[in-house]
Amino acid sequence: MSLYEHIFIARQDISAQQVETLVEQFSAVITDAEGKITKNEYWGLRNLAYKVKKNRKGHYGLLNIDAPHAAVAEMERLMSLNEDILRFMTIRVDELEEGPSAVMQNKGSRDGRRGDRGPRTPRSDSPRAAKEPAKAEAAPSASTEE
Fold it and tell me: Would you say domain 2-95 falls under CATH 3.30.1240.10?
C-alpha cells in the first residue's frame, strides 16, 4: 500500500462538528478498501489567501493515509462531488510524519506571542529613540588600591 498526505478545505458556513462528520465519511471509504488513516488533524477555521467559491475562510484538515491508490481515488471523487469541500490536495510520500504537523506545532507557540521575544526596545534610528535621552552608564571610578 502507498502512503499519502491529504489536505482539504471545507466551507466556512459549516460547523466544526460537521467537518468531523465529513472526515468520518471519507475515512470510512478508506477503511472499506482495506486502508487506514494514521493521523487526523483539524487545523481550524483559517483565512484563505483569495476567495474560493465566494468564501474568505475555510475549515482546514489533514489526513495521513496508508491505503491503495484506488481507495484514495474514490475518496477524491467523492470529495469533488461534495458541496462542502472547497479544495483538496493529495500527495504521495515516502514516509508519514510522526507527531504533530508543522501547523499544529506553530499553533502552540503562537499563544504567548510577545512574551517569547521579550520587551520591545526602540531602534536607534527611529524618531522615538531620538526623543528619548540616552542613558549614560556610570563610568567605573578609578580606585587606587595599594
Answer: no
